[in-house]
């Protein structure tokens, strides 16, 4: 087997910096926890900041240094998002917290035509997320993790893919023991034994090591060398989408939200494309510096994953949305999905195919005017004309049930109230004369309801239009109820 260990050493910093647009002037940043620096960016490192330094000393070395609190939950969400992006390379992706992902890729080498193709596909999958990463390869999961933690990943990539453990052992022997994922008491034992590299550790008798370091340590070494099985649990993809960006400084205007919104929408569209899903509704959540919360719901007539269109609808909504206070965190959430339709383009439109331009116009109108201003007509299973159609939100706040087969010759436009007709010289009259074109169609109420019985006709008006007229047997009068388009 061939394992790739993809490490994200700046994962904690990326949680805070992914919202910054390109071209933002760099400034020294440091991630702190329990009063010490855990990680820092290049600008801070240039000023002498290093992991393990106390915050007071760091400020003395670099007064403009900006401290960032570690966000374990946000880091875990981002690591999972990065891991799901790696599914574009291989289905066997394993989380290795706090900042590493394991990929088993030997079976994918023929698909991507060798190791170079695998690495190219991996770069293509991770580049849009904007998080720096390092890579190591080895025949066992623990060996790959040890190489990437010991800064020997670049050297391991010089080996041909795939390779066996003998080719990897010279590199493994160079790994510092401080890079091994062992607890502090065990590291102190290694220091007391003056063991500095993994090679020195592997050269000692296994029985003696077991007595001094414990069974867990020797078991780790055996799994690292492939002597014992080391089963891994593949990642299970999330069913819902939720991603958050944190801001270094509060954002109080819509223009400052454009880039982070675009980044989150790109993440959502990758999520949808991987699962071949469509999303017609998603929600923006704003966390403000004054601890208040706001949300903005975006609905679309088309749910295909197109980040540009989703961003356009969001910007139209923001024109009428007031940000109550500076935003410190932006979250995009989507939970309502449906199977993605066939998006292949045809030379000639199929009968009944939806008009993309009309749907795009509908999305813009809803974004500008609100969802209540644009309503769709839907058919209901009822023979009475005034109840046979309704708007989407006209029945108890829910969409009316559809019926696939309604009686023929039904006009789309119905008057709110039927218009009475006069009989003049043997013809029906209303702003002109009517000529009946069809035999009557009788529509009566169910036996359990009291009401009128009507005889409906298709009629042509003198103006050339076609209308729906009926004779009321109860009132013994003629009425016009609708107009055919």
Please identify the structural class as seen in this structure.
Answer: alpha+beta
Largest sheet: 6 strands, antiparallel
Low-pLDDT residue intervals, each spanning 5 or more residues: 393-407
Report the span from N to C terminus. 67 Å
The number of helical segments is 15
Q: Whole-number radius of gyration?
A: 34 Å
Short summary:
This protein is an alpha+beta fold and 485 residues long.
Produce the secondary structure layout.
Blueprint: E1 3-7, H1 11-17, E2 29-33, E3 36-40, H2 42-46, H3 55-61, E4 66-69, H4 72-85, E5 93-96, E6 100-104, H5 115-126, E7 134-138, H6 141-149, H7 153-156, H8 165-172, H9 184-192, H10 198-202, H11 206-213, H12 215-224, E8 241-251, H13 258-275, E9 277-288, E10 293-299, H14 307-318, E11 327-339, H15 356-369, E12 377-379, E13 389-391, E14 413-420, E15 422-424, E16 427-429, E17 434-436, E18 441-444, E19 453-461, E20 466-472, E21 477-483
Parallel strand pairs: 2-4
Antiparallel strand pairs: 1-6, 1-7, 2-3, 5-6, 8-11, 9-10, 9-11, 12-13, 14-21, 15-16, 17-19, 18-19, 19-20, 20-21
Helix pairs in contact: 11-12, 13-14, 14-15
Structure commentary:
With 485 residues, the protein is of the alpha+beta class. It folds into four domains: 73-224, no CATH class; 241-339, Dna Ligase, domain 1 (2-Layer Sandwich), CATH 3.30.1490; 375-406, no CATH class; 412-483, no CATH class. It contains 15 helices and 21 strands. The protein has helices at residues 11-17, 42-46, 55-61, 72-85, 115-126, 141-149, 153-156, 165-172, 184-192, 198-202, 206-213, 215-224, 258-275, 307-318, 356-369; strands at residues 3-7, 29-33, 36-40, 66-69, 93-96, 100-104, 134-138, 241-251, 277-288, 293-299, 327-339, 377-379, 389-391, 413-420, 422-424, 427-429, 434-436, 441-444, 453-461, 466-472, 477-483. The radius of gyration is 34 Å and the shape is elongated. 28% of the residues are buried.
